[in-house]
Amino acid sequence: MATTNLRDEATRLLQELLRLNTVNPPGNETIAAELLCGYLEESGLSCELYALEPERANLVARIPGRGEGPSLLLLSHTDTVIADPEEWSVDPWSGELEDGCIWGRGALDMKGHVAAAATAIATLARQGFEPAGDLVFAATADEEVGVDVGLSWLCREHPEAVRTDYCVNEGGGERVFVGGRHVYLCTTAEKMSAPFRLNVHGRSGHASMPGIADNALVRAARLIDRLAGLRQPPRLIPETAALFAALGDVPAPAELERVVAGLPQDAREMVEPMLGLALSPTMISASERINVVPGLCEVVCDCRLLPGDTPEDVELAIRAALGEDSYDLEWIDAIGGTRSPLATPLWDAIEAFVAEDDPGAGVVPVVSPGFTDSHFLREAFGTVAYGFFPMRTMDPELAARLIHSADERIAVEDLELGVRFLRHVAATLGQ
Questions:
Q1: How many structural domains is the chain composed of?
Q2: Model confidence over 228-276: pLDDT tens digits?
Q3: b/e map of 152-181 (b: 16 or more CB within 10 Å)?
Q4: 54 and 124 assigned to the same domain
Q5: Going by C-beta distance under 8 Å and a sequence separation of 6 or more, which residues neighbour residue 261?
Q6: Do both 173 and 121 map to the same domain?
Q7: Is residue 169 part of a domain?
Q8: Same-domain pairing of 83 and 206
Q9: Collapsed DSSP state (helix, strand, coil) of residue 415
Q10: Which terminal residue of the chain has fewer beta carbons within 10 Å of its beta carbon, N or C?
Q11: What is the pTM of this model?
């Protein structure tokens, strides 16, 4: 199929998706699922809608395989974060095509990927593609908030709908210049989200006589400052060792901190979160009255751990940084922290696409500082899941600033590149 046809088809579909308001909450993803279902059925695909709540449907479509090879899931989500029209240059739900870009909330995160994946499987179906294993497309609900009506629910209640050997999801594909050449970042592992709560204790009293009280908010301020100063020695894990190897050399553990400090700022900002604990106090609450000194102050901290680490592995270091004080530490949750192996046919397919489409460029593994729905597949089925959607027209720093922000947009050239990549992966694994 001609490139211009792929580009135009994906562009039209993305514009239609962007004109649907699926801000989560409340989501209302069924309107997007129904749009996609109608589009895919026109290409001869069979679609299923799965919904715990009628207005929050997940769509799954597939091209059945011959039973001779691995199955592949093209994973995406149709919900978005909120948008304030007053902050935008265009209507966030306009799907406007301007300056070579398609504008709207979700263009990058991740309706662009939705449209590209739907276009890829639809055009393959029209061409009579018969893969060795099932080729599955899923457009799920509720990735942005996570109230268990999306992929987590599908994995538990309808596992056969999404169980596959391999998966391509969001979370990578940026083209950056490091180590003297261009490389595309492929997310093969994700950090664990392990937030915790500090309940800082003091003694309440009237604010007009602060000396008779023990201000828990003031105590909390000291503890927050100590947390901000917590530093652990960086360390390599298999993914970051492979990243450094791809860039030229793997530093010895004793040299790692010096090598990272010597990186250009943009590269250092990318690499540092992959090398250890990331901790950020983010929420605080204390007195509900202006004239009452709080006897209790709650501080909530976002905490991200390397894959393989647990809250127990870092609690001693956190308590050591806090020192002796009147507080209780409570772990709130622990989600994610999964990884997929690097030496796989899916990795080979990604490398082959980059080598053919961008000669001289390479692919390097990265650890996502956050996490995506990929962790549900890894945990439930052992699926090899990578985050990769190649982009080379839009500057990666601009793209990072636009995600979840005003004037979000995707370059038409990058949208078309994504379609070609997904078709290539499906054809390569399915041959």
A1: 2
A2: 999 999 999 999 999 898 878 899 999 999 999 988 887 888 899 999 9
A3: bbbbeeeeebbbbbbbbbbbbbbbbebbee
A4: yes
A5: 268
A6: yes
A7: yes
A8: no
A9: helix
A10: C
A11: 0.93
